C-alpha cells in the first residue's frame, strides 16, 4: 500500500517535470527567434546607413552637417532672419529627408526580399542564425508577412 502512494507521487512529479521542460524549450525557442529578429533589424540598419553613406562624399557630408547645425541654431534665435536663408534651409531639410526616406525604403525592400544577416555575424551567432533561418526555414517576421501570410520556401542562399 505504501508503494502505491509513492508511485503516484512519482508519476505526478514526472508529469510536472515534463511540462516544465516543454515550457523551458518554448522559452528558449522564443528567445532564439527574438535574437534572429534583432540581428535582421541590425543588418537592415547597417544596410540603410551604408546606402546613405555612399550617397555623400566626405566634403558633401561636412557641408550638410554644418548646414543641419545651422537649422538647430536658428530654431533658438529670437531675431527675425532673411526669408531667403530660411527657404534655403528648408530646402536642405527636405532634400536630406527625401534622401534618408529613399535610402530607407529601398534598403528595406532589398533586405526583405533577400534577407541575410550572416555577413555581419561572428562564428557562433552565424551558426545559430543560419540554423534558424535556413535549416529550419523560419523567415524574418515583418508587417507584410503578418498581414498577408505567405508560405515560406527556404531559398538556397
UniProtKB/TrEMBL annotation:
The GO terms this record gives for MF are: catalytic activity
Q: Which family does it belong to?
A: Belongs to the PAL/histidase family.
Q: What is this protein called?
A: Uncharacterized protein
In terms of domain of life, where is this protein from?
Answer: Eukaryota
Q: Which SUPFAM superfamilies match?
A: L-aspartase-like (SSF48557)
Amino acid at each position: 500500500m505504501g508503494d502505491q502512494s509513492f508511485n503516484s507521487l512519482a508519476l505526478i512529479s514526472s508529469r510536472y517535470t515534463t511540462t516544465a521542460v516543454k515550457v523551458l524549450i518554448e522559452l528558449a525557442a522564443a528567445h532564439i527567434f527574438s535574437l534572429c529578429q534583432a540581428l535582421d533589424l541590425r543588418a537592415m540598419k547597417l544596410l540603410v546607413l551604408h546606402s546613405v553613406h555612399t550617397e555623400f562624399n566626405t566634403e558633401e557630408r561636412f557641408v550638410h552637417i554644418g548646414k543641419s547645425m545651422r537649422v538647430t541654431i536658428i530654431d533658438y534665435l529670437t531675431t527675425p532672419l532673411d526669408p531667403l536663408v530660411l527657404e534655403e534651409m528648408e530646402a536642405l531639410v527636405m532634400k536630406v529627408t527625401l534622401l534618408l526616406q529613399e535610402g530607407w525604403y529601398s534598403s528595406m525592400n532589398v533586405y526583405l526580399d533577400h534577407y541575410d544577416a550572416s555577413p555581419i555575424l561572428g562564428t557562433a551567432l552565424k551558426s545559430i542564425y543560419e540554423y534558424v533561418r535556413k535549416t529550419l526555414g523560419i523567415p524574418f517576421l515583418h508587417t507584410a508577412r503578418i498581414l498577408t501570410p505567405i508560405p515560406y520556401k527556404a531559398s538556397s542562399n
